[in-house]
Design brief:
Elements: E1 7-11, H1 16-27, E2 31-36, H2 40-50, E3 54-59, H3 65-79, E4 84-87, H4 102-130, E5 133-138, H5 142-145, H6 151-171, E6 176-183, H7 196-205, H8 214-225, E7 236-239
Length: about 240
């Protein structure tokens, strides 16, 4: 088991890529702490526990600093460490530049950027005290190349990459690595409403001629969270089927 007895906090772990990460990490021996506002997290945790894994669901917002601090303190008190932080929680509010409202801009910045900052700032002291930590945050290939109608989303994902590189410099001497994962188009609930014809066009634009499944992205997180990547820090691992960027 590649994550045996590691305590892993996974934000946005109730569905999609986060759910795939939670299940894979539990299979690899981690004690999985799912952070989400969606009650689907209860079912994900229950299924992991029924499969002889260890999982908990904590219903809090990553943007609520006090709630995050209390939750992480409770996890640390119960399990003795916080070894891995997966900053996966994120939202979209797509609109072209001239039509995007301040509310749509602020909502995405609040979750995708501020939420990542709050969770990492809260987890870092526990990792520093233990001289060990793995921080892996959700970027996107959109953060590398931009995307039509996603000024807010692209800005947050580019910011996540920059923050990860900064944390590498600040936290490396404590045995903590910080990396980002940049998925390409992935078949999650967020894209379920896309018309079939448009979906096929997207797949055709990807060199591998198919879209990612959540598990394809989860394996990248597993590598960066494992001791196999102990000397890997400050990178953005792109998992997008070779999409031009």
């Amino acid at each position: 088991m590649r994550l045996k007895d590691k305590v892993a906090i996974i934000t946005g772990g109730a569905r999609g890529i986060g759910e795939a990460i939670a299940k894979l990490f539990a299979k690899e021996g981690a004690k999985v702490m799912i952070i989400d506002l969606l009650d689907q997290g209860i079912e994900v945790a229950d299924n992991i526990n029924k499969g002889n894994g260890i999982a908990e669901y904590h219903k809090i917002s990553v943007t609520d600093k006090t709630a995050v601090e209390n939750c992480f303190a409770s996890i640390h008190k119960k399990h003795g460490s916080i070894d891995i932080l997966i900053n996966n929680a994120g939202i979209t509010r797509d609109r072209t530049l001239e039509k995007m409202s301040i509310e749509e801009w602020d909502a995405v910045i609040e979750v995708n950027l501020k939420g990542v900052f709050i969770c990492t700032q809260t987890a870092a002291p526990y990792m520093k005290a233990n001289k060990y930590g793995r921080i892996v945050s959700a970027a996107s290939n959109v953060g590398l190349r931009g995307n039509f109608g996603q000024t807010n989303y692209a800005a947050t994902k580019a910011g996540v990459i920059a923050m990860s590189k900064t944390w590498t410099m600040e936290l490396g001497k404590y045995g903590i690595t910080a990396n980002a994962v940049a998925p390409g188009f992935t078949l999650t609930d967020m894209v379920a409403e896309i018309p079939e014809a448009h979906l096929e066009a997207i797949k055709a634009s990807i060199p591998l001629k198919t879209a990612a499944q959540p598990i394809d992205i989860a394996y990248g997180y597993l590598y960066l969270a494992s001791d196999e990547a102990r000397f890997v820090s400050g990178i953005c691992l792109t998992i997008d089927g070779g999409t031009a960027r």
